[in-house]
Write a structure and sequence with these properties.
This protein is an alpha/beta fold. It is 35% helix and 21% strand. The protein folds into 2 domains: 268 residues, Aldehyde Dehydrogenase, Chain A, domain 1 (3-Layer(aba) Sandwich); 212 residues, Aldehyde Dehydrogenase, Chain A, domain 2, CATH 3.40.309.10. The longest helix is centred in the first third of the chain and has 25 residues. Bound molecules: NADP nicotinamide-adenine-dinucleotide phosphate.
């Protein structure tokens, strides 16, 4: 069996016993093992601080962008190999694997382009200079400068490529060195992506820790950043652990994303078809293991029957099984723990909702008998959505969603306590205006599905580098991506005041720079 190493201090090293085993979730066959026991994480941090940080900070944005471009291109060249690994270790269908890997490649390329646009700058101005004295000579500016520490990236199991790449793109363009840690169970893709990328980056700029983080977080200080993606339970532990140390923490956690159907949308219309196809796709893509997946679906009471029928029809076309078989359209969940949690979550939802497709999740999968972590797509209908608790509070991280009739959906959407994305399907401007303003404080992103965007949109589940990713409350309170906004996590904002000519010499405004 392959042993996965960690890339620390510019070389590949392996930990010692005990090893964690990575398996194929369709067949339960062991694929690889990894361990970080005995690795010198203090030396890795020192190396990032002493070598990687200075090397990146010396570069202009355009030069940092070139690094990202090279990594993106190299991943593109290895795309088929990465897809195969994602199918084996993540239980991804080919389409699911492409979603993750192409998302990672595209995000690196997007930040490479932003770097090229910023050209020879090394610090970003935030807003315009302001006059502070009697004449224009005495002025103040705000700058974003790279933090003088290490960016520790901790990723969830569901997006080993995109999660690793999107965090790396922002940190490297901002000028911070990285120690990247994937979720152990699906680390194979992140490991290969790192093996490809590490030699393309300056010494110390990128390190990869394949397995447990050991005491890494206890060694962090106020100039360091932790960008975490995962469950709210783990996030809670990190908040306690890092709060005492002063390291900056960004959390991307659970989300009870909702889809809302407007009262104007009639069955058979273009907006209706968009709603049905996007909700069904979100429920089953990556076996529902997407932080942006729709978990709650709100429709007007007089549309409940039609919506249920249309969604059940879509779900009944899904073929669950081993994604290496061409007829399979939905793979397994990624681990046996995931399967246990999803089944328990369905049972809990069933206390206040009726399953109308998929029952308790048991499925006859197209896979070797008795093997694999398979679960059916499950659609439930809430008995009393206003009184329900579980559907608004518990994220079931699988192909599971609850449909509910409501004439005041915004009120119910807000009961999710803060989400990554909410999709609203309507062509009624007044309904959209009221709904968007009512739910906006509870979300990082709102997606409007209407007849005019049919054929152009990729749906609410696709995270775009141009737009913010994150959400308040339940979703963790974090912010990533959003174009150049994504660099702020890795930057210190500083006000500098003085003679305007000196300020311009230190940090030229974009229009003054020579690239
Ligand atoms: P998880 O169990 O919280 O693990 C997430 C990461 O944290 C893994 O890399 C894990 O490492 C690591 N970890 C666990 N305990 C740790 C500790 N004490 N100190 C430092 N690191 C620790 O979550 P998951 O099961 O991988 O992911 C599923 C969850 O992620 C879902 O709730 C989903 O909604 C959320 N998610 C959110 C987003 C978003 O952008 N908001 C995106 C994707 C997923 P090991 O694997 O080595 O244990």
């Amino acid at each position: 069996m392959k042993t996965l190493g960690s890339y620390l201090q510019d070389r590949w090293v392996t930990g010692k016993e005990p090893f964690a085993t990575l398996v194929n979730p369709s067949t339960e066959e062991p694929l690889a093992q990894t361990s970080t026991a005995g690795l010198d994480l203090g030396a890795a941090l020192d190396h990032a601080r002493a070598q990687g940080g200075p090397a990146l900070r010396e570069l202009t944005f355009a030069q940092r962008g070139e690094l990202l471009k090279a990594w993106s291109k190299a991943l593109h060249a290895a795309r088929d190999e990465l897809i195969a690994l994602a199918m084996q270790n993540g239980g991804n269908t080919r389409g699911d694997a492409k979603f993750d890997i192409d998302g990672g490649i595209a995000t690196l390329a997007h930040y490479a382009d932003l770097g090229a646009q910023l050209g020879g700058l090394q610090a970003l101005r935030d807003g315009d200079a302001v006059q502070l004295g009697r004449t224009a000579r005495y002025a103040g500016i705000h700058l974003w400068v790279p933090r003088d520490g290490v960016a520790v990236h901790i990723n969830a199991f569901n997006f080993p490529a995109w999660g690793t790449a999107e965090k790396a793109a922002c940190a490297i363009l901002a000028g911070m060195p990285i120690i990247s840690k994937p979720a152990t169970s699906t680390a194979l893709v992140a490991w290969r992506l790192s093996e490809i990328g590490a030699p393309l980056l300056p010494r110390g700029a990128f390190q990869f820790l394949c397995g447990s983080p050991g005491d890494l977080l206890d060694r962090l200080g106020p100039q360091d950043v932790v960008a975490f993606t995962g469950s709210s339970q783990t996030a809670g532990k990190l908040r306690d652990q890092l709060g005492r140390r002063g390291a900056r923490l960004n959390v991307e956690a659970d989300s009870l994303n909702a889809a809302v159907l407007g009262p104007d949308v009639a069955p058979g219309s273009a907006s209706w078809d968009l709603f049905v196809s996007e909700v069904a796709r979100d429920l089953t893509q990556k076996a529902g293991q997407k932080c942006t997946a729709v978990r709650r679906i709100f429709v007007p009471p007089d549309r409940l029957g039609d919506a249920q029928e249309a969604l059940v029809d879509r779900l009944s076309q899904i073929r669950v099984g081993d994604p290496s078989r061409p007829e399979v359209t939905m793979g397994p969940v990624s681990t046996s723990d995931q399967l246990r949690d999803v089944r328990a979550g369905i049972q809990k939802l069933a206390t206040e909702a009726q399953a109308v497709f998929g029952g308790d999740g048991t499925v006859q999968a197209l896979a070797p008998e008795g093997k694999g972590y398979f679960v059916s797509p499950v659609l439930l209908v809430a008995r009393d959505p206003a009184a329900a608790r579980v559907m608004h509070q518990d994220e079931v991280f699988g192909p599971v969603a609850t449909l509910a009739a409501s004439s005041s959906p915004a009120e119910l959407v807000r009961r999710g306590g803060g989400g990554l994305v909410c999709s609203v399907y309507s062509d009624d401007r007044e309904f959209l205006r009221k709904c968007v303003l009512a739910i906006a404080p509870y979300h990082g992103r709102i997606y409007l599905g209407s007849e005019k965007v049919v054929g152009q949109t990729m749906g609410p589940g696709t995270v775009l580098p141009q737009l913010l990713h994150g959400g308040p409350g339940h979703a963790g309170g974090g912010e990533e991506l959003g174009g150049l906004r994504g660099l702020q996590l890795y930057s210190q904002r500083v006000a500098v005041q003085g003679d305007r000519a000196l300020l311009d010499a230190i940090a030229p405004a974009a229009e003054q720079r020579k690239t």
